[in-house]
């Protein structure tokens, strides 16, 4: 998708918010519901700001160890400590700004989840000048204050999420930036006391602000308390007593300062194992679970629905995403039908399946190549330039806004209609790219047989094999030398639909550029639901221009469907010429 520039973005996406925002009161629990101060049910539709305070390697396309502290050390090895600090200061300044939150509100989000790294708020235990004391750092609190102000301006809830706790809360090291050579959260009392103290400090600061939606007190704990050797991530944990005790201690500390806000708890095993933890110990508590890469069926959330009913407590899907648009639409339909709010993950990254795509640069690619033993060590100047360009690429105006992802989250769950992906204005010489088919559900705007990544349920990682340009099931390949994109890996029975905005009614000739990968390739065209016209693709190898003559188009919107009747093809573009 082409870059959306700031001027266009401001015109298309940014809403006007009245200066005097009015809170709807603190979110609170009533049975299995989350209500606002007016007693209205609140369905949280949010997104997590993953990668801002806490980087994970995959968000930066880093191979090998993906903990932030190791990434930082590798950067420092290339450019030195001072330049590394300059990069991280730019990263924090650029990743999330007022324009990001304004845009999120315009797109349909009503909440933000902030994944916090403790080291922006307080020193690590082993760096404290006086053991047992807490040194508070201003940077994290200032960043949080600014984010909260932007959320207030848009009447959005901010949920604070401790993503990286002192010492690290699990054996999935990247998630919490854990240094396995040091005692974990569970192996060191000082780390636990610092975690409790941090939450009390946050509660004291934000106790009276109704735009704080809640406190997500410990993200994705994953630790085998009973059998660490064989169950390192706590998936089979039966008791979870150390986790429960810490969460109770944090709750007590919060409630000493703050009686108002939701406290959100997550189970072991990445947020889903609640064995031994329930019932809840606070009357304003919400359970969070996380869901990735499995089927979007009632069975897939049966465990959390049964838990909600058994303990009469609300549930919230605190993290989900990292999949195709088909999966996104299915998930939103499933969740909202069961009155479960959600927070997608993440807002932006170097990748295709999120609301914003951050773009790499040639010098940063040299850094990645060196780190993965695919290229020579870059010079310090190259590495510094690559890192600072990457920090600048975080700014919303330098990203690609993924309209297809947003459409899958907010429109498609409740609409079977299609809308144009591109204007596709048709007059003599007009070119429509095959990748610019309509926005809409699979089976409505297009049909593809392999649409999503369900590998937790069936072992298959489906969806767009090229993982580029769009995030539907349709396979798309990129040609980086020409910045071109093609539909490929087609199968019999698949099809693509295009809305054409025709300037002048008449008869047109169409030339389709394609490259058959099999000798039995056959196509059909259907215009405005009139009789389909079959096209046999010549068996010659290489790119070909197929002519389809005498296509009648009316003025204004027209619908064209391209069917794959047989064979594997690569589809480039369609050129229209009016026949006089």
UniProtKB/TrEMBL annotation:
Residue ranges of every copy of the Glycoside hydrolase family domain listed in the record: 89-348
UniProt-listed GO biological process terms: cellulose catabolic process
Record flagged with keyword Hydrolase: yes
InterPro entries the UniProt entry points to: CBM35, Galactose-bd-like_sf, GH, Glyco_hydro_5, Glycosyl_hydrolase_5
Domain Carbohydrate binding module family: 471-570
A GO term for molecular function: beta-glucosidase activity
Keywords: Carbohydrate metabolism, Cellulose degradation, Glycosidase, Hydrolase, Polysaccharide degradation
Cellular component terms (Gene Ontology): cell surface; extracellular region
Record family assignment: Belongs to the glycosyl hydrolase 5 (cellulase A) family.
Protein name from the UniProt record: Glycosyl hydrolase family 5
């Amino acid at each position: 998708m082409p870059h959306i520039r700031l001027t266009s973005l401001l015109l298309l996406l940014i809403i006007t918010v009245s200066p005097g925002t009015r809170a709807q009161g603190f979110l609170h629990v009533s049975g299995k519901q989350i209500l606002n101060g007016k007693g209205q049910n609140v369905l949280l539709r949010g997104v997590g700001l993953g990668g801002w305070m806490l980087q994970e390697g995959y968000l930066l396309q880093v191979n090998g160890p993906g903990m932030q502290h190791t990434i930082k050390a590798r950067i420092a090895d290339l450019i030195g400590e001072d330049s590394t600090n300059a990069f991280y200061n730019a990263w924090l300044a650029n990743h999330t700004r007022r324009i990001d939150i304004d845009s999120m509100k315009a797109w349909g989000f009503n909440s933000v989840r902030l994944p916090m790294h403790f080291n922006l708020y307080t020193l690590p235990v082993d760096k404290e000048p006086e053991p047992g004391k807490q040194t508070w750092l201003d940077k994290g609190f200032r960043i949080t204050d600014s984010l909260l102000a932007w959320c207030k301006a848009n009447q959005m809830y901010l949920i604070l999420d401790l993503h990286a706790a002192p010492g690290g809360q699990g054996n999935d090291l990247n998630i919490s930036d854990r240094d396995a050579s040091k005692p974990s959260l569970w192996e060191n009392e000082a780390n636990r006391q610092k975690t409790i103290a941090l939450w009390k400090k946050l509660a004291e600061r934000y106790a009276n602000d109704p735009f704080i939606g809640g406190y997500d007190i410990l993200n994705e704990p994953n630790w085998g308390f009973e059998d660490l050797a064989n169950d390192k991530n706590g998936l089979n944990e039966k008791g979870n007593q150390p986790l429960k005790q810490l969460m109770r201690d944090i709750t007590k500390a919060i409630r000493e300062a703050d009686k108002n806000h939701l406290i959100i708890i997550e189970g072991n095993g990445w947020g889903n194992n609640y064995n031994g933890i329930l019932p809840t110990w606070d009357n304003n508590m919400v359970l969070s679970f996380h869901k990735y890469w499995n089927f979007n069926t009632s069975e897939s959330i049966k465990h959390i629905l049964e838990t909600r009913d058994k303990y009469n407590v609300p549930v919230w899907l605190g993290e989900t995403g990292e999949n195709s648009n088909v999966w996104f639409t299915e998930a939103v339909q499933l969740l909202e039908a069961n009155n479960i709010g959600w927070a997608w993950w993440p807002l932006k990254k170097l990748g295709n399946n999120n609301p914003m795509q951050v773009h790499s640069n040639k010098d940063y690619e040299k850094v990645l190549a060196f780190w993965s033993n695919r290229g020579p060590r870059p010079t310090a100047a190259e590495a510094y330039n690559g890192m600072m360009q990457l920090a600048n690429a975080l700014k919303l105006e330098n990203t690609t806004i993924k309209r297809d992802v947003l459409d899958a989250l907010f429109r498609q769950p409740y609409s079977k209609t299609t809308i144009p992906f591109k204007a596709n204005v048709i007059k003599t010489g007009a070119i429509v790219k095959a990748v610019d088919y309509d926005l809409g559900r699979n089976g409505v705007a297009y049909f593809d047989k392999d649409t999503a990544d369900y590998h937790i349920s069936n072992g298959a990682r489906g969806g767009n094999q090229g993982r580029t340009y769009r995030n539907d099931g349709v396979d798309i390949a990129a040609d980086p030398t020409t910045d071109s994109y093609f539909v490929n890996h087609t199968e019999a029975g698949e099809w693509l639909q295009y809305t054409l905005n025709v300037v002048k009614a008449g008869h047109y000739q169409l030339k389709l550029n394609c490259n058959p990968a099999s000798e039995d390739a056959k196509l059909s065209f259907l215009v405005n639901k009139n009789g389909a016209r079959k096209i046999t693709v010549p068996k010659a190898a290489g790119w070909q221009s197929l002519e389809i003559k005498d296509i009648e188009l009316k003025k204004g919107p027209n619908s064209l469907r391209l069917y794959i009747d047989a064979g594997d093809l690569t589809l480039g573009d369609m050129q229209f010429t009016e026949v006089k």
